[in-house]
Structure formats: structure tokens, C-alpha cells
Amino acid sequence: MSNKPSSHQQDLLDIQRANNGDVTGFESIYFRYKSWVYSLALRFVNQHEQDAHDVVQEIFTYFYHKFPGFVLTANLKTFLYPVVKHTAIRFRDKRKVEMGEALPDTLLANTSIDHDQQRLALAGVIDTLSSDQREVVLMHIVDGMTLLEIAEALPASLSTVKTRLYRALSILKDDPKTKAYFDNSS
Which of 8, 53, 84, 146 is the most buried (most CB within 10 A)? Predict the structure, then answer.
């Protein structure tokens, strides 16, 4: 059995250290979450890398100023998600870029269809989802957030999140362009 703390326990320990003035606690959080914040920001700023880097800097500057005295009442991703989302959208809107979320490779199945055709087919169907459904699908599949974390981050009830995800996946499963991604048969 490992005595290694869970991610949430490690977050709590690092927050306690940061609250006590130990900068290594904050640094530990930064290095553990900077890639996640960057990839999330990148999606919301329509793949504009410089804006995503700027969002990361702004997020961690904002977070740093929460110390001492920060109290974590949920998982850290649950706390960070809405902050990253709203900051990135603000950056995107400043740049006046058209809305269009890039689809990460993790959503693409390994089929005989050309990779670009897969991406276009999936993007086309995902774009038909409501923004609420699309957001829940991306948070769950791409960002790896649990349904409870999504509910806390949005905020929405757990049943609302489950319903949005169920309806979104039903649409994707029923659409001829994406049905193959969900077929278990070969």
C-alpha cells in the first residue's frame, strides 16, 4: 500500500503550506495544474497559443493573491475551471475571434476514416449540440472531470449535468456521421 496522498490531499497540503507563507506549496500547485489550465484555456481561446499562455499567467497570478487565507471547499479543478473559462472567454472576446472550439484528439476514434474527416464529422455534430451539452461533453471527456466536479464548477445540479451528458451522447450516438464512434461491433 502506498502512503502517497491523493491529488486532493496533496492540494490541501500545498494550500496549507502556501497559507503559511511557504512559496513551495504554491509552486507545487502551479506545476501540477499549469498544463491542465493551459489546455483548457487553449480550447476557450480558439487555439490561440499566446492568449492561452496569458490566461495561465493571469489565473495563477489571481490564485497567488488568494494567499494567505485561501480555503479550498471543493476539488481544485472545480475551483479553477470557471475562473479559467471566464478569463479565457474575456481574452477571446478582446481578440474578437469567432467562437469555434477545436476538438482534441481524445475524442477521435481509431477507425479507417481519414483523421481529418473524423475531426470534421465529429466537429460538425458537436457543433449541433447546445452550448450547455457541448460544455459538459468537453469537460467530462477532454478535461477528465467527474460529473460531480462538473456540477460544482458550472454550477448546476448533478442531475442536470447527467441529463445534459446523456442527451449529448444520445445525439452523437444517433447521428450517422458519428455513430461509428460508439459502435462496439467491428
Answer: 84
